Amino acid sequence: MNHLSCVSTEQLPTTDRLGKWAQCVSQYAGRLPPPVLLNEASIIEPFNQRRFRGKLEFGDLGDLRFCRMAASAHRYRRALRSEHSIDVGNWTLVLQESGISQFTQSGRSVSLSPGEFVLLDMNQALDVTSSRGCEQIIMPVGERSVGQARSGRLYHLACEGGLGRMLFNLLHDSVAHYNHLSERASRALGDSLLEVLDHAFEQVSSDHDFDVRGTSRLDLVRQCIEERLHDPELNAETVAAALGWSSRSLHRYFHDALGCTFSDYMWQQRLTRCAEQLQDPVHSNLSITDIAYQLGFSSSSHFSRSFKSSFGMSPRAYRQARSA
């Protein structure tokens, strides 16, 4: 039977623990060819350094490698030491299991919710923010499985049905029951995952141009909320009315598709945007209150309590830590 290997921050020396953790993420989650690993420079920026915890569990399904990562709130930045081109495509598929993570690559951003995939070009720089922590399954895939993928693109795959849902179930269950699988069964599941991924990506690529993607229900809901984050009166009723849905349908959709409430999602999006602006030099001329009020908060005390609950420190301390 198989056994998952494990590395956690608790096992790492306190001296340069974050640097060692970044190396572990590259080695065990990225699992990329040596030329790619040697060309990357990764940094982990916890929102609360003293409370940061991370765990990696990894194994193989035949030729397919995977890693399940759980980490508290942090930002992951991956830069390239040189811009020389690599002829071979290196792609990684990420399944979000919990939390919401913001992926940014080549000028494009994707907000990944539980049950969704993103396909990343690992020959490019990458920025990932998980403002309340995350659990993810990370799986490097060969160029053969995503042959139609274009270099420098960020691909987003929801799992509302069809092949996306099949891919989610197969990957999630393979990892969850990994310790009960024989080597032969593991290889068969790995082959099946690559086959389903190939067809799912082919279907999505032909159905959508990811530069203008926005026809799925999930995208419509997100866009509707994003456009109204500044409005203090934003609530489920106004979003449902804008979408032509009933409030009950919208609440049920959040429960079934995202595993959270509308209110939780809305406030977390506001807090994430506030955190981004607090660390962005472009907004250094704005006070903390100005930033909060521009993103829909109507009470400074409510914002400060919510921010500290999510990020483990006050907005002021967070801003100072980012600029230090």
From TrEMBL:
InterPro entries from the entry? AraC-bd_2 (IPR035418), AraC_XylS_family_regulators (IPR050204), Homeodomain-like_sf (IPR009057), HTH_AraC (IPR018060), Tscrpt_reg_AraC-type_HTH (IPR020449)
What the entry lists under Gene3D superfamilies is as follows: Homeodomain-like
User: What task does this protein carry out?
Assistant: Regulatory protein of the TOL plasmid xyl operons. XylS activates the xylXYZLTEGFJQKIH operon required for the degradation of toluene, m-xylene and p-xylene.
GO molecular-function term, one example from the UniProt record: DNA-binding transcription factor activity
Q: Which SMART domains match?
A: HTH_ARAC
Pfam families per record: AraC_binding_2 (PF14525), HTH_18 (PF12833)
- Statement: the UniProt record of this protein carries the keyword Ubl conjugation: no
Q: Which residues form the HTH araC/xylS-type domain?
A: 219-321
Which UniProt keyword terms apply here? Activator, DNA-binding, Transcription, Transcription regulation
Q: What is this protein called?
A: AraC-type DNA-binding protein
